[in-house]
Amino acid sequence: MFYVYILFSSSLEKYYAGYTENVSIRLNQHNAGKGNYTSKGIPWILITTFECTSRSSAAQLELKIKKRGIKRYLQDQGLV
């Protein structure tokens, strides 16, 4: 099982989307500064996750979210 996750950084006022098999481990990695982009926005908070059945479906959903704009996608879903 794969998960698409959306994070928010209050220090940057920005959202970040990605996908992983383990959301809690990945969130800890982001908050430990183990990513080029996300190291600047610590602390990141988890906004939501979407469950996907495969890596390819998770990658497709991540791309769809990023193309729409993360904040706009969240608004479409009624999450912000």
Automatic annotation (TrEMBL):
SUPFAM superfamilies: GIY-YIG endonuclease
Top-rank lineage group of the source organism: Bacteria
Matching PROSITE patterns: GIY_YIG
Transmembrane segments annotated in the record for this chain: none
Domain GIY-YIG stretches: 1-75
One Pfam family per UniProt: GIY-YIG
PANTHER family per record: UPF0213 PROTEIN YHBQ
Family, as annotated: Belongs to the UPF0213 family.
Name of the protein in its database record: GIY-YIG nuclease family protein
